[in-house]
Amino acid sequence: MERLFRQYDAGKDGFIDLMELKLMMEKLGAPQTHLGLKNMIKEVDEDLDSKLSFREFLLIFRKAAAGELQEDSGLHALARLSEIDVSTEGVKGAKSFFEAKVQAINDASRFEEEIKAEQEEKKKQAEEMKQRKAAFKELQSTFKQ
């Protein structure tokens, strides 16, 4: 996945922007409209910077594996067209195919664990913020009397 990401990161800045995504989709044989490309980015753009980091790029494949992408979406097409295909690897490439598949599964597992950890951290921070606000309001009420 990282090789595919780097292949289309023409600016070598660690992100795939709108034009790089357009080029990627055209080369994969699934060109998208400008609006379609923007929607693809928007669907996985966690940091709202209108471009895809490697982490957000991996999120596409996690969502595809979980069946969370619409069949007619550009992201579904990207995930489907970027899968490791045994027919292109051939019999001689079977070992590398299975090694790559195992690596892809391991990467997805690590990615999911990382997402869960981040979500738990966000929940913890929100709860702490809630507690601080409640404590502040209680302290504030003592001064209002």
UniProtKB/TrEMBL annotation:
Which GO molecular-function terms appear in the entry? calcium ion binding
What Pfam families does the record tag this protein with? EF-hand_7
Q: Under which name does UniProt file this protein?
A: EF-hand domain-containing protein D2
Domain of life from the UniProt record: Eukaryota
Sequence ranges assigned to domain EF-hand in this UniProt record: 1-31, 32-67
Entries under InterPro entries matching the protein: EF-hand-dom_pair, EF_hand_dom, EFHD1/2
Organism listed in the record: Alligator mississippiensis (American alligator)
Q: Which residues form a coiled coil?
A: 101-139
The entry's keywords: Calcium, Coiled coil, Metal-binding, Repeat
